Amino acid sequence: MTTNPGPAVRSTVHGYPRIGPDRELKRAEESYWKGATTAAELEKVASDLRLDVYARLRAAGIDDIPSNTFSYYDQVLDTAVLFGLLPARFEDPTEAGDADGRLRRYFAAARGVQGAPPLEMTKWFDTNYHYLVPELSPDVRPRPVGDKPVVEFREALDAGHRTRPVLVGPLTFLLLSKAADDAPEGWSPIALLDDLVDAYASVLADLRAAGAEEVQLDEPILATDEGRAALGELERAYTRLGGLDDRPRILVSTYFGSIGADALRVLKESPVEAVGLDFVTDDEGIADLTAVSGLGSTRLVAGVIEGRNVWRADIPSAVATLGTLLALTDELTVSTSCSLLHVPIDLEAETSQAPELRAALAFAEQKTREVALLGRVLSEGGEGEYDIDATAPGAAFVDARVRARLEALGPDAYERPEDRGAPTDLPLTTTTIGSFPQTGELRRARAAHRRGELAEEEYKAILRSEIDRVIALQEDIGLDVLVHGEPERNDMVQYFAERLEGYATTDHGWVQSYGSRCVRPPILFGDVSRPAPMTVEWITYAQSRTAKPVKGMLTGPVTMLAWSFVRTDQPLGETARQVALALRDEVADLERAGIRHIQVDEAALRESLPLREERRREYLDWAVGSFRLATSGVSPSTTVHTHMCYSEFGLIVGGIEALDADVTSVEAARSRMELVEDLGRRGFKRGIGPGVYDIHSPRVPSVEEIEASLRLAVSHIDAGGLWVNPDCGLKTRGYEEAEQALRNMVEAARRVRADLG
Ligand SMILES: [Zn+2]
User: Fold this and answer.
1) Residue 460, in any domain of the structure
2) d(CA 727, ligand 1 centre) in Å
3) pLDDT of 15-57, one tens digit each?
4) How confident is the model at residue 380 (pLDDT cuts 50, 70, 90)?
5) pLDDT number for residue 671
6) Is 465 contained in some domain?
7) Which pathway (predicted)?
8) CA of 58 to the centre of ligand 1 (A)
């Protein structure tokens, strides 16, 4: 096989979904975790999926195919493993060094095992994908111990594809890592850069020896302020890697926004052969290129097809952009704006969308065809085979009534009175975040109901008995503020999307969220309104079963947008206000039905924060405004809760305070309560519930462990405003572990309360 001299303009993608068209990887992994299948069986499924992706890309007409975009869990974890950077707590001396032993250790780092909590998990930039945060310290020595990129390269080569292996770049890897607990104060992982770059050099040599002609090093960190500021490190890393004799060509790929002229100049002047830029997320890419007088002989990989939203491309406008770019570089490759990891695989699998909507959509498969088409159009001219008139929906989905209502709102629609009394008279009030475990029986009932095989009344009876059980369990455990458990919801966004006008859902549009967990983000395509109450029936039923307060449970506007594919024909803030208005009606109905605690989850507030500071104010303005529009209609005595599943509060603490919720529950367990110290220092004035244990892990925390977290919390935060809760909903857990963990949590709260006198 030799490299095709090929057309002047080539086509590629940064990456492709790895879970399989039917979530094959999820099923194979979960069965392996249960012990039902062997490592070899799991590896076979993975290998088939990889080969299927190469074949799909080839069939779509993509010239340059990436590899090593597959992962059993996460590409950052893969990179840590590749360079021998897993913490020692995952080392099991009894474990064999064979495939099974290696996989077990890998999954232990991802998911935790008794005695060894997993790596922290956090959002990958501003997406809904989660990566595992490597823990590094000055005494670790990055060395090339793994062979995954080489093995996957060879596997592809054997199948006839000379691929471009993709690795997380050294700068991004280190800036996304954190200092281990035992690292000296003030030390940061970037100090390992030179050693790590040496380890990359050795992997590049191995890839070259295996026959790789080009590698892709992903440096999305350059789209953030932190990455943009690391110019010296960028220069050092790529001067060193580019200067190696024994290496494939290097493509440094950036995405999730422009990188600025300074970083671009460093890359242009470094000895790397190609640079990937995103021309979709913002419109600064061309100005950056112009500022450095073009890339000259450095190949430009131009991300002009949106990689993380589902709208069909505007082909004529992409052609125009590429035309401009042709003048700014000698060699051009057309690509997606980022990996296609963030979109569903194939629109063809969908059957239920209205034709006008469907005509506006493109999933991964369709996007690869758009990229290939652009490559052909630029190389050969003509765009005949493509319906170039199809673009994102616009005027057809306008609802004048919604617009008029929003227009008529005054400033008082966003305000609650400052003085509204304490939500409860208890210190350390115990509660949960909303969802309870979802049994197989419940999932089957929901699926049968969805297929029309289970009658409405029977289905409702099942939900009511589930609520009975969850309420009884919470009373038995001794929790203070109860929840109905969300048995009617498959997903906290999808449930509402299905009940709101302006939203469509998909049947197979799965996207990886973390590990084997996938979600089906709905599609927000038009003006949003609420035809009927969405949750009142279930919350009031739950409240009728107990004398304790039950929290109503809604998903907030920012999260409704963040976990959906959202229209791009109007500002996000406008779309968020429409969602907020619909939620405000729901909040009013809940309150009217006697519900005294209402939680509006804004799990995505932090992850939606623009990567660059200069764009954050505008975002926080509409994010805060829409939350307040949704919640400020209630009486002063109703307690408004919100929940966020992350703990890097620093950047948005002002925003969170501005939401003006009475109680905010946040994740803290996995980041070891760093947050409480932070909040203590700031003097957060309303209620706060720092999660006391990690629900992402099957591990049951002991009473002592939770007690220690709570004692730490009360040493920083006034106990009256402190709430006790897990760090997120329980729906991904089983009853056995959830129940035990909650019992331990309530016992820990009792012990600490007793000492408060
Ligand atoms: Zn959460």
Assistant:
1) no
2) 7
3) 999 999 999 999 999 999 999 999 999 999 999 999 999 999 9
4) confident
5) 64
6) no
7) Amino-acid biosynthesis; L-methionine biosynthesis via de novo pathway; L-methionine from L-homocysteine (MetE route): step 1/1
8) 39
**Ligand 1 centroid – CA 477 distance (Å):** 21
pLDDT at 94 over 70: no
CATH of the domain at 670: 3.20.20.210
Residue 179 to residue 33: CA distance in whole angstroms? 29
User: CB within 5 A of ion ligand 1: which residues?
Assistant: 603, 645, 728
The alpha carbon of 691 and the centre of ligand 1 are apart by a number of angstroms equal to 10
pLDDT the model gives residue 672: 60
**Full residue range of the structural domain in which residue 656 is found:** 428-439+475-756
| Token pair belonging to 392 | 């994102």
Q: How far apart are CA 141 and CA 126, in angstroms?
A: 30
pLDDT in tens, 631-666: 999 999 999 999 998 767 777 888 889 999 999 999
* Other beta carbons within 10 Å of 655: 22
Element containing residue 690 per DSSP (H, E): strand 687-690
Token pair of 597 as six digits: 């605690």
**Same domain flag for 432 and 374:** no
* Token pair for 40: 């070899």
Residues 373 and 491 in one domain: no
Give CA–CA dist 474/468, Å, rounded.
Answer: 10
Pick from 193, 148, 117, 123: nearest CA to 46: 148
Judge if 572 and 651 occupy the same domain.
yes
Do the Cβ atoms of 707 and 751 come closer than 8 Å? yes
Question: Does residue 375 share a domain with residue 487?
Answer: no
Residue 386 in any domain: the answer is yes
Q: Are residues 348 and 435 in the same domain?
A: no
Q: Quote the pLDDT of residue 419.
A: 85
Q: What is the ipTM of this complex?
A: 0.99
Q: Which residues are catalytically annotated?
A: 696
Three-state DSSP class for 392? coil
Ligand 1 centre to CA of 643 (Å) is 6
Angle at which helices 75-82 and 99-111 pack, to 10 degrees?
A: 130
Residues 505 and 648 occupy one common structural domain: yes
User: H or E element: which one contains 469?
Assistant: helix 456-477
Hey, what are 605's tokens? 């507030």
Q: Does any domain span residue 247? A: yes
Number of domains in the chain: 2
CA 645 / ligand 1 centre spacing (Å): 4
pLDDT, one tens digit per residue, over 149-192 is: 999 999 999 999 999 999 999 999 999 999 999 999 999 999 99
Distance 257 CA to ligand 1 centre (A): 27
